[in-house]
Amino acid sequence: MKKLLLPLLLVLLPLFTQASAVTFSTKRGEPFQMYLNGKLVNSVARNVVRVANLQPGQHLVEFSIRGRYGIYRTGTRVLLPVGFESNYRLVVVGRNGRVRIQRLADVPLRPPVGAPLPQQPNQPRHYPGEYGTPQQQEQLQEPAVQTPADDDYCQNAITRYDFDKLLESIKARELESTKLTIAREAVRSNSITSEDLKELLEQFEYEGSRVEFAKFAYERICDKERFYYVYDAFKFDTSIQEMEKFINSRRR
């Protein structure tokens, strides 16, 4: 009888036990390394990392993300439901490197034949980063993997070093026309973020110069969905209205 029970238990046990899985990806394709419960998962940085056959429950996850302005670190604890693959997205926000961890969806794993689908517990939708400070001097352990998504986001973007030098050069000039010339030359063959453009516009004294350069630089902005950042650089509502008309005319 015992000899018959043992094989039967081995067959029935998988019907009632189901592992968990988790997948992390970056919104803009930034490569990253992931640590799970203190252990390095991927020695080569990638923009998508999946781990399967995990014990359901809480796990500590930490990330080292190569962003535009340096290396960003963040981490949190995630709760993995039994029988589901949890999908998360890492979003680097702003130059200070604040990282948000967004929960996208929990997808049921294929259960063993005859096993009921496990119930999905209620869980928080967002896990804010606990670290969020860019480590400018650190390097990833392995070379980062370049991805098309990363290139498409900001091709030929002005580096932080070059942008700081550009600001210094403009601040050292007195004539508004000279400032405009320097700014045009800097972005003529480079991309620029909305946040950097806002800071650049604030170096001009006259509102007309700000509007003029914003129009010139618009096609070179690599994150046009954040162009509303730029509006904070304008002093008058009429300037914002003029820019909105300009942008609408470019979309036709």
Q: What descriptors fit this protein?
A:
single chain, 252 residues, alpha+beta, five-stranded mixed β-sheet, five-stranded antiparallel β-sheet, 27% strand, DUF4476 domain-containing protein, DUF4476, signal
Topology diagram in text:
Blueprint: H1 2-16, E1 20-26, E2 32-36, E3 39-40, E4 48-54, E5 57-67, E6 70-80, E7 84-93, E8 98-108, E9 126-128, E10 134-135, H2 148-153, H3 160-171, H4 176-187, H5 194-201, H6 207-217, H7 237-251
Parallel strand pairs: 1-7
Antiparallel strand pairs: 1-4, 2-3, 2-5, 5-6, 6-10, 7-8, 8-9
Helix pairs in contact: 3-4, 4-6, 6-7
Pfam families: DUF4476 (PF14771)
Domain DUF4476: 158-247
Signal peptide: 1-19
Describe this structure in words.
It is a single chain. It contains seven helices and ten strands. With 252 residues, it is an alpha+beta fold. The protein has two domains: 2-145, no CATH class; 154-251. The strands form two sheets. The protein has a five-stranded mixed beta sheet with strand order 4-1-7-8-9, with no helix packed on it. The longest helix is centred in the N-terminal third of the chain and has 15 residues, at 2-16. The relative contact order is 0.12. Residues 11-16 and 117-153 have low confidence and may be disordered.
